[in-house]
Design a protein that fits this description.
With 274 residues, this protein is α/β, with parallel strands linked by helices. Helices cover 28% and strands 23% of the residues. The chain has 9 helices and 14 strands.
């Protein structure tokens, strides 16, 4: 939410402070202009700078045609993205983001390459809902109900597809996890795609992932971490069946090493020594 000071202030801090410049990308939104402006206004309210990247199939040029293809190849926008310190993807339909930033043959557009360039130089990439889903190499695409996923399985190109992969390999991200009871739908995808680690974030909460290595929970509720044993990926059971799973619930200040799976509780959870 826009009044979640812990999350927004930390976002700006990680981007370099009040001198940071954020590019807000509303591609996923059904109302991109409104969604982008709300985020821009909020970032400015917390002290940083922000501008809108009008990348959306719903934003048309003077001839009534989508400007997506032109914008993703525009040298002007590529340079602006490279010079930003932060990128923010709004919520909506994550498929719109991948359709815009990948070519028809699956290659990264110049704008996506610019986002990666900014990221590798120390910039931060953030997003709400759909903007969180795209963070992993594999993302939910056209997922049905949780029960349907458990009963009928998950299929690449349908229930799940290719994300943008900013947080590194072997991880699946999902959002609205506890409020909408979605953690069970992650399991069939993890099994089918042989993904050992699932990160599910709930409402009004953020996961901060540093250097594709450490995850920290920030905010109001929490995150669920799912670990799947490698042998489960061999069966791809329909209906779903698995064993030796581990489920963790992390809240504000808790950290997870994405490689060792070691959890470090926040300082206020340390055991008191009498």
């Amino acid at each position: 939410r826009y009044d979640n000071r812990q999350v927004w202030q930390r976002l700006i801090q990680e981007a370099g402070g009040t001198t940071a410049q954020f590019a807000v990308i509303p591609t996923a939104s059904g109302n991109p202009n409104k969604a982008a402006q709300l985020v821009v206004d909020n970032i400015k309210a917390y002290g940083a700078n922000a501008y809108v990247v009008p990348l959306s199939e719903k934003i048309l040029d003077d001839n009534g045609k989508s400007q997506t293809q032109r914008l993703t190849r525009s040298t002007e926008w590529v340079e602006k993205i490279k010079n930003a310190q932060g990128i923010y993807f709004t919520g909506g339909d994550q498929n719109r983001i991948t359709r815009a930033l990948y070519d028809a043959d699956g290659k990264a557009t110049p704008l996506l390459e610019a986002i990666w360039d900014m990221y590798r130089r120390g910039g931060i990439i953030a997003g709400t809902s759909a903007g969180a889903a795209i963070m992993s190499e594999t993302m939910f695409a056209n997922a049905g109900s949780v029960l349907k996923a458990l009963q009928q399985g998950a299929h690449r190109g349908k229930e799940f597809d290719r994300g943008l992969g900013f947080i590194g390999p072997g991880i699946l991200v999902d959002q609205h996890l506890i409020t909408r009871g979605r953690f069970a739908r992650m399991l069939p995808v993890m099994q089918t795609a042989s993904i050992p680690l699932g990160l599910g974030i709930d409402e009004n909460t953020a996961m901060l992932i540093q250097q594709q290595r450490e995850m920290e929970v920030i905010g109001y509720k929490g995150a669920i971490v799912l670990e799947m044993h490698p042998t489960n990926a061999q069966g791809k059971s329909i209906p779903f069946a698995a064993h030796d799973m581990r489920i963790h619930y992390l809240t504000h200040g808790d950290k997870l090493d994405l490689r060792s799976k070691q959890i470090t509780p926040s300082s206020d959870k340390e055991r008191l020594i009498e």
